[in-house]
Design brief:
15 strands; 39% helix; 5-stranded parallel sheet; alpha/beta
C-alpha cells in the first residue's frame, strides 16, 4: 500500500511543475485526496457494501469537488490536476498513466443498465473541460483537447479537438514518450483547416486563369463584356482560417 502511495505522489512531481514537496502533495492536492477516497470506495463497492461506498464517494466529492463513482475502475499512476468539477461515471474504465484536468466529464448517454461510460487506454491525456460521452474507447496515448466533446472512438496516438471532436493529428505514442499538458501539442495538423486552405488557393488560381482566358479572347478579337468581377483575397482569407 505504501509503495502505491509513493508511486502516486511521484506522479504529481512528474506532471505538475508547481509541486515542491511530498508533504505539499499529501496535504494540498485535491486530485490525490480524491483518488484515496476512490480507492476505499471502490473496495467497498466490490465487497457489496454499495451504500457505504457511495457515502465515502460523496464525502470525497464534498471535500475535493471531484466526483468519482465507486464503481469506476481506475489504473495506476492516475493524476487529476486542479480537479474541480471532474465527474467520472460508474462504468468508466481508466488505464494506467492517464491524466485529467479540471472540468472533465466521463459521462454516459443512456439510462439503460450495463456499460454506458467511456474507456480510456493507457497514457491518455484529457484537457480541461472536455466531455467524453458514451461507451466509447479512447486509445492508448490519445489526447483530448480542452473543451472538446467526444462522442466517437479516438484511435491510439491521436489528438482530438472541437465540438463534436475530430481527429487532427496522428502520432506514434509509444515512440514519442512525451507528456502534453492540457493535451496541447505543437504544429497541429487540422485536416479541416487544410482543406479550407486548399479550396481558397484553388479559387484564387481559378481567378488568375479566368483573367488569362479573357485577355486571350480579347487578343483574338472575341467579344467580351467589360464587367469588373470581384477576386478572392487569398492571403486575407488564409489568415482568417489560421
Amino acid at each position: 500500500m505504501f509503495a502505491r502511495l509513493k508511486e502516486e505522489i511521484a506522479v504529481v512531481f512528474e506532471r505538475d511543475p508547481a509541486a515542491r514537496t511530498a508533504w505539499e502533495v499529501i496535504t494540498c492536492y485535491p486530485g490525490f485526496h480524491a483518488l484515496l477516497f476512490h480507492r476505499l470506495a471502490h473496495r467497498l463497492w466490490r465487497a457489496g457494501l454499495k451504500w457505504l461506498a457511495r457515502f465515502v464517494s460523496h464525502v470525497g466529492r464534498w471535500l475535493t469537488g471531484i466526483e468519482i463513482h465507486p464503481g469506476a475502475a481506475i489504473g495506476r499512476r492516475f493524476f487529476i490536476d486542479h480537479g474541480m468539477g471532474v465527474v467520472i461515471g460508474e462504468t468508466a474504465e481508466i488505464g494506467d498513466d492517464c491524466t485529467l484536468y479540471h472540468g472533465v466529464t466521463l459521462g454516459g448517454t443512456s439510462w439503460n443498465k450495463g456499460k454506458r461510460h467511456p474507456t480510456l487506454g493507457n497514457g491518455v491525456v484529457v484537457g480541461a473541460g472536455a466531455k467524453i460521452l458514451g461507451p466509447i474507447v479512447i486509445g492508448d496515448g490519445a489526447r483530448i483537447g480542452s473543451n472538446a466533446v467526444v462522442v466517437k472512438e479516438v484511435p491510439p496516438g491521436a489528438t482530438a479537438i472541437g465540438i463534436p471532436a475530430r481527429v487532427i493529428e496522428m502520432h506514434d505514442a509509444a515512440q514519442s514518450g512525451r507528456f502534453a499538458a492540457y493535451a496541447v501539442v505543437k504544429d497541429l495538423n487540422d485536416p479541416l483547416a487544410k482543406a479550407v486552405h486548399e479550396l481558397i488557393d484553388h479559387c484564387v488560381e481559378n481567378d488568375k486563369r479566368m483573367d488569362q482566358i479573357l485577355v486571350e479572347l480579347r487578343r483574338l478579337g472575341g467579344k467580351v463584356e467589360e464587367q469588373q468581377a470581384a477576386h478572392l483575397d487569398g492571403n486575407h482569407l488564409n489568415k482568417m482560417v489560421d
